[in-house]
Amino acid sequence: MVGGAGPAGGARAILHVDMDAFFASVEVREQPQLRGLPVLVGGAGRRGVVAAASYEARKFGCRSAQPMAVALRLCPQAVVVPPRHALYAEVSRSVFAVFERFSPLVEGLSIDEAFIDLAGTERLWGPPRGVAEALRVAVHQEVGLTCSVGLASVKFLAKIASGMHKPDGLTEIPAGTELEFLTPLPIGELWGVGPRTQEKLQRRGVHTVGDLRRLGEAALVEMFGAHGQHMYRLSLGLDERAVVPDRAAKSLGHEDTYAVDVVGVPALRRCLLSQATRVADRLVAQGLRARCVSLKIRDGDFVTETRQITLPRATDDYREIHGAACRLLEAVDTDGRGFRLTGVSVSQFEAPEREVQLDLLGPASEPPPRSAALQAVLSAVRERHGHQALFPAEAGSERRPGTTGAITHSRPNEPAKRRR
Ligand code: TTP
Ligand code: MG
Ligand code: MG
């Protein structure tokens, strides 16, 4: 069986590791004079957005996805540092290399976080809690950064746990205590329980995970269909999703869940642009191009549609990926509908080298695709001026506040799974 069944199944030990104030901490490591100061990484311009805030800045209420102007009103003495994405990608690779020494089962969720399944590592490394401690020490000694770790029997509990004692914390939910841990938690802590679902549940008097469990499976299914059943299982601490190692990943993507539903094609296109850019950056960082682009979109009633398109040639160019996603969006009926989630993912990877070889074999081969050179320049500019620097003016540049992002991976023959 893949992955085990959760607390009842016994022995799984899963870590969720998330770096503390990642971009800001990297900048403090690079510029030690910033240590102890409120630091904001992000675009300083009129429309700049905070990508990361150091914990010193958070005391003033500063946080990711806030307009920079707002953050600076809260904390005028903050030091603003422009983002250097290539540096963060490099540091991320070092951090992941440490993770992979502890277990081959490492699944990246974003640039600064991963699930690590400790299955089978006990003989080599000892009990899971000790492994979690050793991993934290190794990351700190070798990369010079702190992280927070959650340890639990299933993925979603490990993820909740890692956020509980940030920064520099380790939180364990020992096997057998899952229900006790979950009972008092607010329902918003569960994966997939967004503001709209929360509101609906609160009207039924459901505020905590314990309340949700008491409401029962049948009532939840009646209210939310399959999603209700999923929530019920989570309320019991059951989450059978396996940790899928990145080496097996056959697609990568980025999706966002919005606090307020997104309405209208122009706004949706802006969301897709931000996602296409993140996907292209990851392709460039991994030296890959992809031929297939997928759009995932979920409306306020949880109706989810996915569509995909195959491009004439593999790309790592955010404009081509965005263009394809917008073509897919044209096939979605957007009239009178608000959308709570959008996502862009790519698959059918090719390494650029292979493409060049094919070009050499071809007759009177055309010059190397102009977009490849252009994409490298664009990545360099983004590195200097931040992620948002090159968004076309008409598309706007601000990430919507109150959103959560996720990198997605999926395996061949398996539909892209929703992750948070
Ligand atoms: P997070 O792990 O969400 O945040 P963080 O590492 O800054 O802080 P925490 O200690 O709470 O984990 O995101 C990782 C990095 O991703 C973050 O440092 C910057 C980037 N990011 C953005 O660029 N925009 C965003 O809206 C968010 C949430 C993160
Ligand atoms: Mg983090
Ligand atoms: Mg993170």
TrEMBL record:
Query: Where is Mg(2+) bound in this sequence?
Result: D18, D112
- Residues flagged as site, Substrate discrimination: F23
Q: Which stretches are tagged as biased composition: Basic and acidic residues?
A: 411-420
| GO molecular function term, any single one | damaged DNA binding
InterPro entries found in the cross-reference section: DNA/RNA_pol_sf (IPR043502), DNA_pol_Y-fam_lit_finger_sf (IPR036775), DNA_pol_Y-fam_little_finger (IPR017961), DNA_polymerase-Y (IPR050116), DNApol_IV (IPR022880), PolY_HhH_motif (IPR024728), Rev_trsase/Diguanyl_cyclase (IPR043128), UmuC (IPR001126)
Keywords of the record, alphabetical order, are: Cytoplasm, DNA damage, DNA repair, DNA replication, DNA-binding, DNA-directed DNA polymerase, Magnesium, Metal-binding, Mutator protein, Nucleotidyltransferase, Transferase
Q: Which reaction does it catalyse?
A: DNA(n) + a 2'-deoxyribonucleoside 5'-triphosphate = DNA(n+1) + diphosphate
GO cellular component labels: cytosol
Q: How is the cofactor bound?
A: Binds 2 magnesium ions per subunit.
- A single Pfam family, by name? IMS_HHH
Q: Which Gene3D superfamilies match?
A: 3.30.70.270, 3.40.1170.60, 5' to 3' exonuclease, C-terminal subdomain, DNA polymerase, Y-family, little finger domain
Q: Where is the active site?
A: E113
Its EC number(s): 2.7.7.7
Domain UmuC positions? 14-194
Per UniProt, subcellular location reads as: Cytoplasm
Cofactor(s) it depends on: Mg(2+)
**Region of interest called Disordered, as start-end residue ranges on this chain:** 386-420
Quaternary structure note: Monomer.
The record's function comment reads: Poorly processive, error-prone DNA polymerase involved in untargeted mutagenesis. Copies undamaged DNA at stalled replication forks, which arise in vivo from mismatched or misaligned primer ends. These misaligned primers can be extended by PolIV. Exhibits no 3'-5' exonuclease (proofreading) activity. May be involved in translesional synthesis, in conjunction with the beta clamp from PolIII.
Query: To which protein family does this belong?
Result: Belongs to the DNA polymerase type-Y family.
What HAMAP family does this protein's entry cite?
DNApol_IV
| Full protein name | DNA polymerase IV
Instruction: Look up and give the organism this protein is from.
Output: Nannocystis exedens
